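Worked Example 4.2. Consider the chain below.
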Amino acid sequence: MASPSEVSQKEYRALAEFRYQIRCFLRFSEDAARAAGLEPHQHQLLLAVKGMPDGSGSSIGEVAERLQIQHHSTVELVDRLVQRGYVQRRHDGADRRHVLVHVTAKGERVLRELAVHHEEELRELGPVLVSSLRRLMNTLRRKAGAKPKPAAARPKARRTAAR
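Applying the procedure from the previous section yields the following structure tokens:
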């Protein structure tokens, strides 16, 4: 058996295929955002704010974490979206010093349009993406000495969007 630090050609192929499938979806998403008149990061911010998990606020810091970008970059994105009428800042009712970002009706319209297009794309691309992830995970399990789980025994994906 190969050492855990060695990477086989099969692992490289599985990683590359998974990365390729993710990139295909991201490219679709970027193109769809631009076609709707938004930059990809602006679309991601709208989606992050609208899709925050229950119990989370939509403060700049929380949005920055969801986007995995710096706080100051998030502030700039919010500023641009406020200027274009897609989001607004509101003071938190419990703590007036705390500012939350909210999607406006205009932002909701463009986000809804993009969500419909993304759902259509995922119906087509989703099975291929899941299959490539499954192959990658099975390759990694075999490397670790575990047997791949049969399809029926696999845990169902958690749906964070429904939260």
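The radius of gyration is 20 Å. The CA atoms of residues 45 and 67 lie 7 Å apart. Compare this with Example 4.1 before moving on.
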